[in-house]
Amino acid sequence: MDIEILRPGDLTLDRVAHWQALQEADITLDSPFLSPGWARAVDRAQGAGTRNVRVAVIRQDGRDVGYFPVRIGPTTAMPAGAPMCDYQGLVAEPGVEISPRELVRSLGVQRYDFSHMLEDQQVFAPFARGHAFSHVVNVPDGYGAFEAERKAAGTSVLKDCDKKRRKAERENEQVLFTPYSRVDADLDQLIAWKKAQLLATGQTDLFDTDWTQRLIRALFESRDPDFGATLFTLRIGQKLAAVHLHLRGRKTIHGWLIAHDPAFERYSPGILLFQDILRWMDNTPFERLDLGPGDYRFKRELANHQQGVNFGFVGTASPAAFIRGAAYGLAAAAESLPLGRASALPGKALRRFDILRGLR
Q: Is 19 contained in some domain?
């Protein structure tokens, strides 16, 4: 087995088509973040310098059998587009086996860090240092079947949405859903709400860097039928109440950036917008709405499937791997001590450091 390292823009049309065909053959690989479109968009947004987006092309018997996009630094690699990338994984033919350490050596680095590696990718499982879940809404039979399924599961989230929608209509005359909004001001408002949300919760501002802004704008403006971003809006009365920017795959849309106006909190406009999107999907090729990582109540109640993800690193015998292993060891030791909130500080510091690395 050979590994060829290429820039995303150097992939031929045949290779791109093969990559897309592998995704289409396995619904678990249909995430927009695992697509050639994502790798190419991130590469264009980040440009040259220390931000080197590459695709490891796995070859066997003289032909391509798998694709793995990454960002390569001087000594370490990370997911292409991190921290804006919600999933990582190898898109490959069934049964393809690789050595993760050989992959790292082929990239010319000492270590590869991952944050949301698909748990189904057993090849990376031995290198995991933690586990989480993403929540997914599968609607292959349409919204009506999904609504009946949620009711049978004892979940009242959709019933509650109907009540809040009627209340919003009574008090504001109309609730207007718009798919595929091309209004720049709607996108600007989404980013402003997200920045305020990150500031209020003490998190790193993901939008205070050049390449993330370029990436978001480029995906919003994309007209590629196979990949891009779709802006959905909800207006209550005449005012913008909620905005979502979702990435598009072949059969999957992914809730990427979502926010709402706190003034309309009593109507739960963000969840109402999700309900509208699920209904809208009935007339589209989309069969799955991925809500992404994060353990929020609305995700648990809407979702009918969980996608396991792992975080960790793959390293060769090197200083970079030793340092990362020591950092994880410190975080694990702190979490095992009865220090209250202080126990989580090393782990939070490590995650914030990774976010800042990705944004540089």
A: yes
